[in-house]
Amino acid sequence: MSISIAIVLVTVVGLLGAIILVLAAKFMSVYEDPRVGEVTECLPGANCGGCGFAGCADYAKAVVEGKAPVNKCAVGGAACAAAIGKVMGVEAGSSDPVHAVVNCQGQTDVCKPKYEYQGIQSCAAAAALFGGPKACSFACLGLGDCVKACKFGAISVVDGKAKVDVSKCVGCGACAAACPKHVISMRTMAAKPVVLCSNHERGAAVNKACSKGCIACGLCVKNCPEQAITLDNFLAKIDYSKCTGCGTCVSKCPKKVILMPADFE
């Protein structure tokens, strides 16, 4: 008799628990727009963060909520943007593709050494030791933190400096975030000149450290027909909203610090 009562009690408790769970699921559930799943399916699943969001799912949610455009996935490109636009019922529009650029020419034979580094093969670790082993304190250290961060195999270290393979780079920005010297920037593929130097010291100090550094001579500033170049703390800076890509600054730069993308990619 006691066994029967126990079985009944357990059954009743189980039924009550099931009812409570069903009611909780119904009243405490959070509605999710089904388009979030559809947009997520359109994305490549790289979760690289290049769109500025934590991952593909987070970006998909932002798109559906109207907080992000449909064409921010650098990995998926135009096809991905078109697919998301179809889900959202909007035109994908156009966005200029971007890729990483190493704003430094400090290869082993260009930038002088400061000391012999024998520590951990990490740019972050080397940078913490007197700014790194290169005489230029702004130079690419070439120990591969960007290489490790890139999920697409688009970066390698050649002659002590990071080099980007544009054909593989998707513009996610992971390499730029990993660089402790901040010498990697993201730029569009537009044929406009790039300043391949990050040194903000005066010309005399730059010359002592590197044979291909900006010496702030100002020739690019004086000769730019569009007045698109200024000197920002002893370093040439291009205003791309004014630059027409004429190449005058490239021809006038005595240190060959300003180059067109086709000349260094």
The N- to C-terminal Cα distance equals: 86 Å
The proportion of strand residues reads 5-15%
Q: List the helices and strands in order.
A: HHHHEHHEEHEEHHEEHEH
> Which stretches are low in confidence, meaning pLDDT under 50 for 5 or more residues running?
none
**Strand numbers in spatial order across the main sheet:** 1-4
Compute the number of strand runs: 8
3D architecture notes:
By secondary structure, the protein is of the alpha+beta class. It is built from 11 helices and 8 strands. The chain is 35% helix and 11% strand. The strands form 4 sheets. A two-stranded antiparallel ribbon has the order 1-4. Strands 2-3 form a two-stranded antiparallel ribbon. Helix 2 (34-42) packs across helix 3 (56-64) and helix 2 packs antiparallel against helix 4 (77-88). The chain starts with a helix and ends with a helix.
